[in-house]
Amino acid sequence: AAMSRKGVKVLVDSLTRSAKHFNKSEVECLVKLFDTLVARASSDYAGAGFDRTVFRDTLHSAFGMTDGVVLDRVFSIFDRDNDGCITVVEWVEGLGVLLRGTLEEKMKFCFAIYDLNGDGYISREEMFQMLKNSLLIQPADEEPDEGVKDLVEIALKKMASTYLFVPFLLQDHDHDGKLSFTDFEKAVRDENLLLEAFGPCLPDIK
């Protein structure tokens, strides 16, 4: 439902404080965009927000994000109450991290993207799924799944970042075949380019 002018002002003021990374005029623009997106969504949410389809289409058109698995994971992270609907608070605060988050915020965000089952670790299987979706396999290459499995093993020891062509260390410090957030954080702090080691999940600088 349309909010009163006073209601919009209170909302904008509140979001400017909670989103942290946007100024008041930027929050106003994001709220207007939110209203536009809600108008495109199904009526299931009674104007309270928009659904996964609208969210995916928006991130695709605005930021060129195309990986379906990543887009679904981003939706899940934005949708904090897991009700299938992105509210205005989830929208503005989520974009604050996605577009302007600190390194700490982005590390938590990317780790959550890669941790497909939400158990607090990035397992071999999750690395496999993410790398399989993000890497381009040439027709003449070996069996794609085997190549990805090899990369997963490298990632647990000395990961070669195939899309940057530069070797980096991403170590499984406790050698349990999966990466904890502590492992991931240490690697990213040592080399920030490892933030998206298992596939692009942030908009590029443009």
TrEMBL record:
Q: Which UniProt keywords apply?
A: Calcium, Metal-binding, Repeat
EF-hand domain span = 66-101, 102-137
Annotated GO molecular function terms are:
calcium ion binding
Tell me the superkingdom of the source: Eukaryota
Keyword Calcium tagged: yes
List, alphabetically, the PANTHER family matched: CALAXIN, CALCIUM BINDING PROTEINS
Q: What is this protein called?
A: EFCB1 protein
Species name: Cinclus mexicanus (American dipper)
> According to the entry, what is the taxonomic lineage of the organism?
Eukaryota, Metazoa, Chordata, Craniata, Vertebrata
Q: Which gene encodes it?
A: Efcab1
